[in-house]
Fold this sequence. Notes:
This protein is of the alpha/beta class. Helices cover 37% and strands 10% of the residues. The chain has an 8-stranded mixed sheet, with no helix packed on it. A 3-stranded antiparallel sheet has the order 9-10-11, with no helix packed on it. A hairpin with a 5-residue loop joins β10 and β11.
Amino acid sequence: MLTRFVRIQLAVFTIVGVIGLVVMFVQYMQVQSIVGIGRVTVTMQLPVTGGLYRYSNVTYRGVQVGRVTDVALDKSADDLGVTATLSLTSTTIPADLHAQVRSVSAAGEVYVDLRPETDSAPYLRDGSVILADRVSLPQPVGPVLDNVSRLVGTFPKDSLHTLIDETYRSVNGAQYDMQFLIDSATTIAGDFNTVGDQSRKLIQDADPLLDSQARTVDDIRTWTRSLAGATDQLVVNDPQVRTLLTTGPGTAQEVSRLLDQLNPTLPVLLANLTTVGQLAVTYNPSLEQVLVLYPPLVAAINAAAPDHNPTGMAIASFRIQISDPPACTVGFLPPSEWRPGYETDTVDTPDDLYCKLPQDSPIAVRGVRNFPCVTKPGKRAPSAAICNSDEEYEPLAQRNPPVGPYPRDPNLEAQGIPPDTRWFPDQGLYAPPGQGPSAPPPPAGAPPPAALPVPDLPRDNEGSLGLPPPPAPPPMGPAPQDPSAVVPVTPNSLTTAAPPGPSAAVAGYNPRTGEYVGPDGQLYRQSELIATGEKRTWQDLVLGQ
């Protein structure tokens, strides 16, 4: 028979054993999670397991709140996936969360980390589902190891010893530099800690860039192959490259010397090209029209050739046209100045020869007198001077003279071309013979127009031209004239302008001071044409410094 002491011992051992079993079942075996007592059952959808297994821990903000009770295939979904059942103890976990399957150690132990996006309701309840797009899986280690193995396999085994030796030589004796590099990297890492949010955002924003690089991996491989081909070609052409590097400095010096020699004249040329640029800007619409119409014009001309049409013959149309409309002769040389047909040599012609009939005349309607003024829409004139002024075009005659003398052209007479020898004083200048006003009696004699005065350069500049000072010209006076040799001047019914002066004059230019005489007889100076004593390089010339 058991004594009282033994019975007390057995009772104490029984109580301790029951308590131990309860603690083991509840705390260690988590029987309540299997049974579902006081638990919230949540389903989590995954594309793959990601190493997740049954009885894996579930944490919320770093605190364990449950376990994974089951991991099974989800056959009900269209895409075959995995469903994990979570048994949670807490009932205040927000439903708006992101679940991450994370690894604890290299041994393969994983767990589920619940990261809420908000702290407010709604909360997870029994039967809630965490969708697959709210679940992230760890990067699998197996493919990474496979890629590393393939990368190591690409190393040439014969050159591996050379690589190790060269690496040793590169870092041997550079311990202080390596220490400085590590210290600098530590400093940079510490600075990154102060801007952690910006660094994280930078890394997140780099995803599209990296994705684009991944999408263009074929192009990158093509580029690297092309680069390898270019470097191989450089290796083949190594002697030529060395020759180029050897002779390159001398060539650069010659180019610099050439630019220095062009320094006095090239700026003047570039300055003159400014005028050409201004003309191109002014006539930009016309140039655009020429560029648009020129290709179809050339195509049309080529289409008429025998080799560019199905007939095999040139496409042309021949017609006889006799003075319909007649050719324009007003504004050109008078018949008395026409050259015979047997003279085939080339001679200089006067300036401003164009049809000078009224603009509404049916003759030569496409002549220069009907050119549109680009700067003044609606106005037509034969010259830019008339286009830019308020002056209107004035014809020389109303129509071509069928017979008889031609109208006198002040422009030709100013250039030394005599009027038509068939002209008679009793005939008008602009009307046909017999219909114009009679000419007034000729004047007794008028002195010729004075020559354009050209002032002498200053005394201190004459020597700089390299010439001795010229003698003072004698005073000019009216030249004696024979009254019989004076050509009578018929009044102009359409213009009252004064007779033009001489068409040309000679002026001096001092390259040392940049002084020159303008057409108006005034002395001007352009300072940027003077070669200063400061030595300038070809870079200053190109950059305009």
